[in-house]
Design goal:
Length: about 120
């Protein structure tokens, strides 16, 4: 009986699986359904170059008129939220997939207006 370690296997993550991870992480950051997020990937010398398109959830104008601080409570301006989300998306995708992300091109394609329910 030999004490030599067993040969190691090989794990391959398909591009489709990575795309689903990118879409799910992005959707989570912007409060939208992952079906509304599109992601394209390119191999950059073994690292990921991502192009992502997504809508972003925003507070309604009515809510903003009733409560001027609602934007701050929802995470800040669209620009601030997008900048923070880029860093989170890169970090989470890298952590989950084990692939380094070299670049993320993020395009916001629309505003998904969050309708507030009134308490009676």
């Amino acid at each position: 009986m030999s004490d030599a370690p067993a040969p190691r296997g090989r794990t391959v993550i398909t591009a489709r699986a990575i795309e689903k991870v990118v879409r799910a992480v992005t959707a989570d950051q912007f409060g939208v359904d992952s079906k509304r997020v599109s992601a394209e990937m390119n191999d950059d010398a073994g690292r990921l170059d991502l192009a992502v398109k997504t809508p972003i959830r925003v507070v309604s104008i009515g809510r903003l008129q009733d409560d001027p601080h609602s934007v701050d409570r929802s995470g800040g301006s669209i620009t601030d939220r997008a900048e923070r989300a880029e860093a989170v998306i890169i970090d989470r995708v890298s952590t989950i997939t084990g692939s380094a992300v070299t670049r993320l091109a993020l395009r916001l394609t629309g505003a998904d207006i969050k309708q507030e329910r009134r308490v009676r």
